[in-house]
Amino acid sequence: MKRTRRFQWMATLMMGFATACVTMTSCTTNDDNPVDGDVPSVGQVTVKELKELKSSDVGWVIGADGKAYSSVWQAMGNHVETVAAITYIAVTPDEVVHFLAIAQREEKYTETWEEGKAAIAAMAPIAGCEWRMPSMKDWEMIVFGNYVERTGRVVCNDFWSLQIGTGFEVFHENYYWSSDEVVEKGQKKFRVMTFRFEGEDMIADFGMGSHYPNQKHIVRAVLAHIM
């Protein structure tokens, strides 16, 4: 079995387990191992206010209560559902966006741009943050932790490892909408990007052009914390 497929299976299993544990009245797990020990007590949970997050906290998760937890299992210990995983945190305090976090799962699978935008607008709010369709700049910061205006095919195995570590729904080999609008020959379009696998490498492709808004692609929301 190829490593990528094995990782996909593992990530799906972890996400399913996390969801089940959040909804059950009891579940046996510890901070790092979801199958041994007890759910950590509230006093043991590693939790921060969103404004306290620093660049070293990439990989933490955001709870529906508007706080950040060091892992899905820590949030479970406080009986909190997780909604997003942090993939970018500003290094310098003068940046407008403090952090970006990818939604726990695809908000819509193969939807038009307008349908995707509406689905994101209907998501439950998190205090001090906004759910939005990622811009292409957002996509770069989400995948690589910085912005250098990339184009074309780029290997992003670290981003793949981060997805596996959170246990959230992994990205699919398909097109993803962005919020970047362009006009080509008088027609409105939106830029897209895609993920795919080449052997055991995950590839982010920023050179996939622009598509008409009535085409159907995947919608994955990003949670932005604005300072």
From the structure above, extract its key features.
227 residues; alpha+beta; five-stranded antiparallel sheet; 5 helices; 14 strands; globular; disordered N terminus
Notes on the protein architecture:
The chain has 227 residues and is an alpha+beta fold. 24% of the residues lie in helices and 32% in strands. It contains five helices and 14 strands. The chain has a seven-stranded antiparallel sheet with strand order 1-3-2-4-5-14-7. Strands 8, 9, 10, 11 and 12 form a five-stranded antiparallel sheet that branches. β4 (82-89) and β5 form a beta hairpin. It is globular. The model is unreliable at 1-38 (pLDDT under 50).
Overall shape: it is globular
Provide a count of the helices.
Answer: 5
Largest sheet: 7 strands, antiparallel
Task: State the share of residues found in helices, binned by percent.
Answer: 10-25%
Count all strands and give the number.
Answer: 14
Strand order of the largest sheet: 1-3-2-4-5-14-7
Question: Could you list the spans in which at least 5 consecutive residues all have pLDDT below 50?
Answer: 1-38
Arithmetic mean pLDDT: 79
SSE-based structural type: alpha+beta
- Cα distance spanning the termini: 45 Å
What's the alpha carbon Rg, rounded to whole Å? Answer: 18 Å
**Beta-strand percentage range:** 25-35%
Written as H for each helix and E for each strand, in order along the chain, the element string is HEEEHEEEHEHEHEEEEEE
Topology, please?
Elements: H1 3-23, E1 47-49, E2 61-63, E3 67-69, H2 72-77, E4 82-89, E5 97-103, E6 108-111, H3 113-121, E7 129-132, H4 136-144, E8 153-155, H5 157-166, E9 175-184, E10 187-198, E11 201-205, E12 210-211, E13 217-219, E14 222-226
Antiparallel strand pairs: 1-3, 2-3, 2-4, 4-5, 5-14, 6-13, 7-14, 8-11, 9-10, 10-11, 10-12
